[in-house]
Amino acid sequence: MKTILIVVGIIIVVLGAAFGRLMSKMPKKGPALVSLEGGIQGVLCRFSYAWIVPSATGVILIDAGLDENAPNIIAALRRAGLGPESVRGILITHGHADHFGGAAAFPGAPVFAHAGDIPLIRGEHKRTGIIGSIFSAISARKKPPSHLEPLPAQDSITIDGVTFAVMELPGHSPGSVAYVLGNIVFSGDAVMGRGASLMLPNDFTCTDPALARRSIAKLAGIGFTTIADGHTGAVYDGRRKLEGFLTTLHLP
Ligand SMILES: [Zn+2]
Ligand SMILES: [Zn+2]
From ligand 2's centre to the CA of 59, what distance in Å? Predict the structure, then answer.
């Protein structure tokens, strides 16, 4: 009996330590609302951000959260005197359900994602590994957006008068991208804030963790100040933090 208790105790301690290690490498949830220059707003949808960007005749969303009814995004639009029909387009950073699920609440808007992640969004391609299988099961319950289109094969996209540069940052998923608008990089999960520095998504959540590391080095080639990410909110001196962070990755 005593031996069983000791074994059970050891298992609990080991599992607890493993869980603690996993959680310490997960992004910390940011504030409910984030305001950036140009009237851009970050809306926390449970644990991921949708970013609302004003456009010529309405707004553009960058990601849309997990919930298919997108209640937090719709509430933020209402506070600005807008309805769901004012969404002119949705840019998805990558094909994980916590970023595209809410697109279903805006059936009139075209939804764009990198061609590499369209099979993930349509549920035609399942993620592998334990964590991947759990995420795939969540995604499988999400209806893919009705107007889903691959991003045009060029390095920018213009929707309703607003032009975003598109940067391919594969690794977290095959088709992860960042959208760049002026000083702001909308990075999805490719790189996120962590205290005084930055963090990469947990290796467990990546199709190719080494590629994910190499991809973010590309951001050093562009001018920006703020990173608006998929889970922690805004990193205001993102460019300086990126330079410091890249030196810790020992990239070849
Ligand atoms: Zn993701
Ligand atoms: Zn995410």
Answer: 22
Q: Does any domain span residue 161?
A: yes
Whether the full predicted model's pTM is greater than 0.85, yes or no, is yes
The answer as to whether 10 is a domain residue is no
How far, in Å, is the centroid of ligand 1 from the Cα of 1? 44
Is residue 84 predicted with pLDDT exceeding 90? yes
CA of 27, nearest ligand number: 2
Mean pLDDT of 192-200: 95
Instruction: Indicate whether 124 belongs to any domain.
Output: yes
Domain that holds residue 56: 31-249
For residue 96, being part of any structural domain is answered with yes
* Cβ 185 vs Cβ 227: under 8 Å: yes
Quickly state the pLDDT bin for 61 (edges 50, 70, 90). Answer: very high
Quote the CA–CA distance of 213 and 249 in Å, as a whole number.
7
Q: Quick check: 177 and 151 in contact, CB under 8 A?
A: yes
Whether the pLDDT of residue 91 is over 90: the answer is yes
How far, in Å, from the CA of 27 to the mean position of ligand 2?
A: 9
